[in-house]
Design goal:
single chain, 454 residues, mainly beta, Porin, two-stranded antiparallel ribbon
Length: 454
């Protein structure tokens, strides 16, 4: 899960970022941070000489180490998915702005290097390096019109933990609402906007592109729109999208500020077709037949998000959100999923392993959160609890079976040039519950970031 909305089989390589032995890679990243920081101070230009320069930017260099305690997940017996317990990563994120060519060019590039401690080195890579262009787009304005072309993170929703109406780029997930690791990549778009007074109309073409394939470059066409209007103190947006295959979605979101301490928001989205795979009702869960999960002809899924936040005594901020995920599994469908896993576990270790392992891997690939329908998100935050230390705590709870996750993250910020943080991530729930299926029980993360502005 680069977010909570991805397959469980990729937990360590993408979503959780279980990155390597903590010792050598983490120390290397730490000393590299110090070296780059010293260099930037020695060679920084005078502010007055660079104020008119068209190119500006900032950099964040981060090192993280993580220790995980694995759980007895039903789709991961004997650690079938090869989940690592110790990992580390260092990455550099650069944001640049160039003012020229009649407009502005914005970019965000992520350079990462990971070391993953896996017990079977022949099965997975231990060292992973990647270069990811999260954003690279050109924007220009003429009168009431604005034109954008390139890869961009497009934010349309108003939710804090998740936004159903983020139809172009899904930027939020309840496990990491702030995208701490800069894993989210923007969408390749061509956008025309009309802005007048308190209104804005956005028309977007965002095709599915195949950059590294022998297939046609444009794989599928997609179009989106948003009409935004400010009716003080309300923000109101109508959004929609249409895909080449005939799928479409439309919705609305709104937010309102009440004084300086309270904010309320809501989102609604209707999707014409569902992309989720469901258990095959015609198969006995105890059978090893493959595939067990198939797309269905379900139509008309509704997503609803209701939430708000309040700031009270001592700068404490509390956020609460309720999410209804209409495409989620019903109780009957989830029970069929669990019965399938229990049956496969009972047969695991028998003579003929091939269909059993295939069934477990298929079950893991079809796990994604939210898997069910109703959830509650809560967050408590203080920006300066004591001596430049902030504290953040949040949880995501499945109302269907009371399983969930809890995160606590204290962070020390030193003179706006660096920060040190630790993060504890706890999953709870029996192994027949949604979050009890996640192969991790407890994760401990330590990280350091250095900020270099130029």
């Amino acid at each position: 899960m680069c977010s909570l909305f991805m397959h469980a089989a990729s937990f360590k390589s993408c979503r959780w970022k279980r990155l390597g032995k903590v010792t050598k890679p983490f120390l290397f990243t730490f000393f590299f941070l110090l070296a780059v920081g010293s260099y930037s101070h020695l060679h920084a230009e005078d502010e007055s000489s660079s104020s008119s320069f068209p190119l500006s930017g900032s950099f964040r260099l981060t090192g993280e180490g993580e220790k995980s305690t694995l759980s007895h997940s039903l789709f991961n017996p004997s650690n079938l998915l090869m989940q690592p317990e110790i990992s580390a990563e260092g990455f550099l994120v650069g944001n640049t702005t160039y003012k020229g060519l009649g407009g502005v060019v914005e970019s965000e590039v992520r350079l990462g290097y990971a070391y993953i401690n896996r017990k079977d080195p022949s099965f997975f890579e231990k060292k992973i390096s990647d270069v990811k262009i999260n954003q690279l787009y050109y924007q220009t304005t003429s009168g009431l019109f604005s034109f954008q072309l390139g890869r961009k993170k497009v934010r349309w929703g108003v939710g804090y933990s998740y936004s159903p109406t983020d139809l172009i780029t899904q930027l939020k997930n309840p496990e990491d609402p702030e995208d701490r690791l800069n894993k989210i990549k923007g969408t390749d778009i061509l956008q025309l906007s009309y802005i007048k007074n308190n209104s804005e109309l956005d028309l977007v073409y965002f095709p599915v592109l195949e950059w590294n394939s022998s297939n046609p470059f444009i794989n599928s066409n997609r179009f989106g729109f948003r009409w935004y209007h400010l009716i003080d103190p309300f923000d109101l947006s109508f959004v929609g999208k249409v895909e080449q295959q005939g799928k479409w979605a439309s919705g609305v979101n709104t937010s309102v500020a009440i004084g300086k301490a309270i904010e309320l928001h809501a989102e609604y989205l209707y999707s014409s077709l569902v992309n989720t795979n469901y258990p095959n009702p015609n198969l006995d869960p105890s059978e090893t037949a493959y595939p067990f999960f198939l797309p269905t002809d379900k139509k008309g899924a509704n997503d609803i998000l209701l939430g708000g936040q309040v700031t009270f005594y001592g700068d404490w901020n509390l956020t609460l959100e309720y999410l209804f995920h209409g495409a989620g599994y019903s109780s009957e469908e989830f029970n069929a999923y669990i019965n399938r896993l229990i049956s496969l576990n009972n047969q695991f270790g028998t003579y003929n392993q091939i269909p059993i392992v295939a069934g477990l891997q298929e079950s893991a690939l079809n796990y994604s959160t939210p898997l069910r329908q109703q959830y509650l998100f809560s967050r408590l935050y203080h920006p300066n609890l004591v001596h430049a230390i902030s504290i953040e705590m949040y949880s995501f709870l499945s109302l269907a079976d009371r399983s969930g996750l809890f995160v606590i993250k204290p962070k020390y910020t030193g003179s706006k040039t660096y920060e040190v943080y630790c993060l504890m991530e706890k999953f709870w729930g029996k192994n027949v519950t949604e979050f009890g299926l996640i192969p991790d029980r407890l994760n401990a993360i330590v990280g350091i970031s250095l900020f270099l502005d130029r």
